[in-house]
Amino acid sequence: MDDPGEDRALVARVASGDRVALELLYRRHAEWLTARLQSRCGDPDLTDIAVQDTFLAVWKSAKKYRSEGDVGAWLWGIAIRRLIDQLRKRKAAPVDPATIVADLTDHHSIDEAVLGSGAYGSVGPAVQALPDDLRAVLVATAIDGLSTKEAAHLLGVPQGTVKTRLMRARHTLQEALS
């Protein structure tokens, strides 16, 4: 795993206009960002554009990074929003909930590693036990940090459906954990 301090130093160099630092940051993070975005969207062209837009945004806004928290989490927040931007430009096509949560059952994924590692105690297995439609909403909002409106667009369902599924997911989790 890459050193978080090195990532922060690279972002600081990018903020000062260092193109080599941007290239290094890209090399360190583009592959996993692409993989995670592809698990959220089946269109490789859209995910490639979203990754490129992510690093363009990093180039333009690296000065705004406050060196608080993980650079990877900051990049993911940018990347998922860039993917949503790309999806908005195209005609809405629902995404199968199984696609959204597929990486939770793929042992090579970051999400599954976090949820399955026991880092969150019994929450990880409880999330994995949720039905796909509920888990997709929970992953999109809680793990990916999307708003209910953004999650609705990504999943191709009304915002009210996202809210209802989120409420059901939380209730089911609460029951499983009590």
Plain-language structure description:
- With 178 residues, the protein is mainly alpha-helical.
- It has 10 helices and no strands.
- It has helices at 4-15, 19-40, 44-61, 71-89, 97-105, 110-116, 123-128, 132-143, 148-155, 159-177.
- Helix 3 (44-61) crosses helix 4, helix 8 packs across helix 9 (148-155) and helix 8 (132-143) crosses helix 10 (159-177).
- The longest helix is centred in the N-terminal third of the chain and has 22 residues, at 19-40.
- Mean pLDDT is 80; it is low at 103-120.
Topology:
Layout: H1 4-15, H2 19-40, H3 44-61, H4 71-89, H5 97-105, H6 110-116, H7 123-128, H8 132-143, H9 148-155, H10 159-177
Helix content: over 70%
The largest pleated sheet is described as: none
How many extended strands?
Answer: 0
Q: For the terminal residues, how far apart are their CA atoms?
A: 35 Å
> Roughly how many Å is the radius of gyration?
17 Å
Estimate the global geometry from the Cα principal axes.
globular
Low-confidence residue ranges: 103-120
Short recap of the structure:
This protein is an all-alpha fold and 178 residues long. The chain is built from 10 helices and no strands. The protein has helices spanning 4-15, 19-40, 44-61, 71-89, 97-105, 110-116, 123-128, 132-143, 148-155, 159-177.
